[in-house]
Amino acid sequence: MNINYKKMDKINIACISEEIAQKNIAGNNIRLIKLLQYFPLGFDFTIFSIKNKKQGSFNTSKFQNVKVFPIDNLLYHKTKTFFQIRNFVKKILWYFINYYSTLDFLWAFKACKEIILKKDNFNFVFLQIPSLTNIIYGRYIKKRVNMPIIFDLRDDLINFRNRFGIRILENWMMKYGSLIVCVTNGSKEKLEQKYPQYKGKLAYIPNGYDPNDFQIPQYTSTSIKRISNIVYTGALYESRLRVIEKLFQVLATMQNKDNNLANKINFIFYTSNKTLDKLIESFGLIDIVKRDNIINNDSDYFSVLQGADYLLSLNMETPYSIPGKLYEYLAVNPNVIHIDNNKITEEVLQYFPQSQLILIDNIHDLINVFKRIIACPQVEHNPVILPYEYVKKFSRENIAKKYANLLTKTFLEKNCV
Questions:
Q1: What does the buried/exposed string (b/e) look like for 144-160 if buried means 16 or more CB atoms within 10 Å of the residue's CB?
Q2: 180 and 173 in contact (C-beta within 8 Å)?
Q3: Where in 120-162 does DSSP place strands (E)?
Q4: Which domains, and CATH codes, for the chain?
Q5: What is the pLDDT of residues 59-82, one digit of tens each?
Q6: Which of 31, 50, 27, 39 is nearest to 3 (CA)?
Q7: Rg (CA), the chain
Q8: How far apart are CA 32 and CA 377, in angstroms?
Q9: Cα–Cα dist 370/162, whole Å
Q10: pTM over 0.85
């Protein structure tokens, strides 16, 4: 669909997002940030967000089409601080729905009222899932004014299936959303099966990577190394820690058979989760596995990825989600070992034959991979040449173009143009 956006009237989009106030764009808000960065001219975004005095205002200077409407709420900040200090309250809220989303109520309804008041200024309301309460805000707006609601399902509600109230929220999302955009084909297909009456609302636009975030080094290294370094970066949730326990069982078994294993293979986990330290000690892997602080600087992060011999990616119990960092891993250093209990990541890994998907129950496959790494420690660090189909499908700029085409098509249909 080739569209001349310059000849169109502007499409105005309202968005509610606390995360736009955060300075770190390496986490949940990276998808929204990149959409804002690469959306073509002809789309204007107004972001309703909590005013964050500590972080400072969101810098809109590099975005030609973004305005921020800050909402101040002292009670929100004080309550958030209280819950962070008293962790048990946070855990109770997390069990029922989602800790951060629960606190959003304190400011987000004001954002909803502003959007309703300015309804004639907007063509769409854009809400990302999770935060789970964005579904409630979308329903609240839709029942008061007939505005098209876009639910961008950057993470699957299906993955929260055991939490209280999720089925109700999922039903509301499908009923009140005009567009539900999934980031994996598996997610879209599952929702089509569950809600065949809303099949026409569903679309697939994946997550991806931005080549402008990093530089591919122009070098080739063929030196033979004795030790292979395997690197993991990012958060370690409870489900991923269960994967690591199985991984450590394999390493402990291998170490019992080879006292020199520490001189052949090393693991470095860049994460803030100190539970890992206890696991390392309990499995007797202090010489093989190290934990370092999480990397906050983007250039340091990509340097670490590029310098690793292999990158470790983990997933568990999220059958329709692909870890966001996997796209960057593959673009920077496709020597990726991905451990999972589902095959959803084949959607991405298929473009890189040097990457490896290991199902967690196939322990022998994991052992064989490590044996091959130990037997052949030479890794060539060549400049990465990305497959054309991977770039076409997963580069952030192309993703934004697909999104713009989808919204334009929806806009023209709604307005019978």
A1: eeebbbbbbbbbbbbbb
A2: yes
A3: 124-129, 149-153
A4: 5-208+395-414 (3.40.50.2000), 212-385 (3.40.50.2000)
A5: 777 787 899 898 888 777 777 776
A6: 39
A7: 23
A8: 39
A9: 35
A10: yes
